[in-house]
Amino acid sequence: MNDAELATIKVIEATLSEHGSYRQVDDRLYVIKQGSTYVMINVVPWADDKALVRCCAQLVRGVNMDGELALDLLHLNSQLRFGAFAYEPNERIVLFLHSILGGSSMDSAELLATLTDVAIIADEYDDQIIEFYGGQTMHDLLEDQALLNILDTDPTAFSFKKA
Known about the structure:
By secondary structure, this protein is α+β, with helices and mostly antiparallel strands. The protein has helices at residues 3-18, 67-79, 108-133, 138-150; strands spanning 23-26, 29-34, 37-46, 50-61, 84-88, 93-101, 136-137.
């Protein structure tokens, strides 16, 4: 890891520790929860001596990108002060992304403003996208998966026995 990546990680961990709960997934990836969305914070090396902080929220999974949704997302992109909506076609996921320069010039206030805006936008628009275009929030998807894991993927496997 270069010095910029190490400085970035130090600011991320200090900021997240002061302002709420988070989970460190690996040495460059963190996750925070806001409402029905999760924001992933990834430290990405850039050139030999720089780092980027990529903030990504997965809003809705299982939605088909049609012309109307694409136009709505492009229009929203033009209204935002930073960040952008995106679409991942293989998993049919609508995302909201924003990157900032990491390293020694990044401060806690800049990081916190970025995370707050990404989380608020994602939490605001996930329900609206589902209402008009279908799909499932990441929160609901994770809850469904957790329930399936608890039930060992077969919801009929459990039964009560008479004494």
